[in-house]
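User: Quick sanity check before I run a bigger batch. Here is a single chain. Can you write out its predicted 3D structure?
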Amino acid sequence: MAYEIVLLTTMSIAILFALSLNVITGFCGQVSLGHAAFFGIGAYTAALLTKAGVPLALALLPAAAMAGAVGLLVGMASLRVRHDFLAITTMGVTFLFVGFVRKQDALGGEVGISGIPQAAFGRPGLLLLAIVCTVLFVLVALHIRRSWMGFAFDSIADDEDTARILGIDVKRFKLWAFVIGTAGAGVAGGLYAHHIRFIGPDSFGFVESVTVLAMVIIGGIGSIWGVALAAGLLSVMPLWFQFVDDYKLLLYGLLIFAAMRFAPDGIAGLARRIAARIALWRLPR
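Assistant: Done. Predicted structure follows.
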């Protein structure tokens, strides 16, 4: 039973992490290669607070606020760049975060932070908290999709200039995407720190940013259920198959290549096409 709890907790955290990036990249079309930095900000914030005696459920709120505040600053700095330049800018955030953490003795430096307290009620309690946080973020994402904000995000993702002509405040909605997405990553990071109970600068590097981006691409950029499915599967594959962990980057690279070549819309788009063909086949002739 303990093994199943670990698997489900890992999946829940990965789904939340991937969906948080999906708000920025999938909904608003802003390519981010530095999402692991906000994951790390949430992890360090929550870990320091719980070691000081704050309950994890309460520590996740400052973790989200801290990650969202830094996301707002990064979003403001990124307003004048697009596409490849935006990706390079956000990629630099990860290197800055890792470099900063390595030099801070209060954050454990190169050694990191160990002995992070368990969540209330142990691993079952952490699993329940992770599921609640993930479900809440899914509800937020669904609400965004059906709201004026979702329409604005779609317009910006399709063509920023046209969206601006239509009267959409592009800068404001871009910032909202960064704040919501990075705050969600902060919560996921806080949960991750208490799931692993040890964090270090190497846990939040460029590889982790590419990994979560792979989950979004493979699941289907902009799709909530597709990204959730891809994140859940890819997060537990290294636990199921040891060889996957040894060649994780190679496997993710091949999956991204296959998705872009044969299924540009990811798992979600592939499922829609299969469903459409089945529906067409069932029509009376």
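Strands lie at 113-114, 198-199.

User: Great, the batch can go ahead then.
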